[in-house]
Design brief:
18% strand; globular
């Protein structure tokens, strides 16, 4: 999806208001963030321009620089770029610094095993207008959601994203909602805002949010916001999801939602 004009304007405003903001560095990082796990064949300059909203000439200079630095590799046969190994080292350095991830993994796997039927339990944090998985545990099963560490899902429409929005500070929530209003319109905007309000209501009354087919029609999920006792750990969300045939609404709300709340509490009690 092409970056919104409002997002580019916001970047320009940052530059104008903060003399220490390095626009070239920011744009280079935007190039790297444009890549997704599904882009196995790589991306060309035109596709990167489409996703970032940057001019083709700017993208060309940035990809050349990233190529020379090793952060991108180039396929002469296809004319496309893929991420280089240095990017992987940055990702692992990030994960290694989040102790909550290793602590939560044990509890997540235990819950996934108890649930069965191809259930996926995940922990994720905000990445711009998406949620990125930083930990994942799945139960045995022939069919399960094909999401793993590094997968990105919608902040506005997913259970994990809406739980995050419900649990974060009022200032961040308002900023997110303003950006949602810029990105969506009509029925999609109304649906997103209703879903966020519903998530706030459910979490206030039950401690968890159940999303029944709103992210994907055949996927049901329940999610819980998580704020670590560690001040340097960002706001996160726990999520439990799977295909609708194995996770009916009654089971989510009466059994699995409360279990996910308890998982969150157990992780918090460890101090992470």
């Amino acid at each position: 999806m092409r970056k919104r004009v409002s997002d580019i304007a916001a970047e320009a405003e940052k530059t104008d208001n903060d003399r220490q903001f390095v626009t070239a560095l920011h744009r280079g990082l935007e190039i790297l963030k444009a890549f997704r796990p599904a882009d196995k064949a790589g991306l060309g300059n035109s596709e990167l321009a489409e996703r970032t909203g940057l001019p083709n000439s700017t993208v060309s200079r940035l990809t050349f620089t990233l190529l020379k630095s090793g952060y991108l590799v180039y396929d002469d046969g296809t004319g496309r770029y893929r991420m280089g190994l240095p990017v992987l080292s940055l990702g692992y350095a990030c994960l290694a610094g989040m102790q909550v991830r290793e602590t939560a993994q044990v509890y997540m796997q235990k819950l996934a095993d108890e649930c069965g039927d191809g259930v996926l339990v995940a922990l994720g944090g905000r990445d711009d207008m998406a949620m990125t998985y930083i930990a994942a545990a799945r139960s045995e099963g022939v069919i399960s959601l094909q999401l793993n560490v590094g997968s990105r899902i919608s902040l506005a429409r997913s259970a994990m994203g809406r739980a995050y929005i419900a649990g974060t500070s009022e200032a961040e929530r308002n900023e997110i909602i303003d950006r949602i209003r810029d990105r969506y319109e009509g029925e999609k905007l109304d649906e997103a805002l209703r879903g966020i309000e519903d998530a706030q209501d459910q979490i206030a009354t039950k401690g968890f949010y159940a999303n029944i087919g709103e992210w994907q029609r055949d996927v049901h999920a329940v999610s819980v916001p998580y704020r670590s006792p560690q001040a340097d750990t960002p706001m996160l969300s726990f999520n439990l999801g799977g295909y609708a045939f194995s996770l009916p609404k009654d089971r989510l709300e009466n059994e699995l939602g409360p279990k996910l709340v308890e998982l969150s509490r157990m992780v918090s009690r460890t101090g992470y």
